Amino acid sequence: MTTSVTSPERALSAAVPTPARSAPGIDTDRVASLIAQLLVELGEDPARDGLIGTPSRVAAWWKAFLSPDGAAVDTCFTESQLSDQLVIVGGMTVWSLCEHHMLPVSLEVTAGYVPDGEVLGLSKFGRIAQRFAGRLQVQERFTRQVFEHLIGVIGREDVTVRVRGTHLCMSMRGVRMDAARTTTLRAGGQFRSDPVLSQQFLTLAAAQ
Fold first, then answer.
1. Distance (Å, rounded) from C-alpha 175 to C-alpha 168?
2. β-strands 87-98, 136-137: how paired?
């Protein structure tokens, strides 16, 4: 396992949510044609039984994967009696694509924050993770993007994000280490200044 721990830049105090990327204008017919050509170059016959329709299915998948739902609103709910409570949302697994080898990456996301007067709707955490995973990515950037977006939505830096990734570019190519995992952690506000709170998050996140 490799672990990367980073700290937020001071500029994040004025962070705003990163807008969801617009769906690319993907020409699925063109992509299907390119997939058919690839099959030929790999010694296959796109017209044989089993491969008929494969280029079109692959093209449709690319379009769907690279067009995550960006319309969802990050809704916060007022909870005036809520303070000094650690909230952790875990068990979120999203798929992304390694931009170096275009192979799948499974990302297990756990996010924590300290609410102050309002809470973020729980389903929004998963939608935010999906939004930034649906593209060619690297885990380190994905972790930062989710972290910064949560700060923008919540309005404070009391946020931390832990991501544990399984990279097929490492599992099925190169060194082919199937058990290898990469962990990235981004922490801000109280999660940086309060070691007890930070340890509570890490302990509970490990148990998710």
1. 11
2. parallel
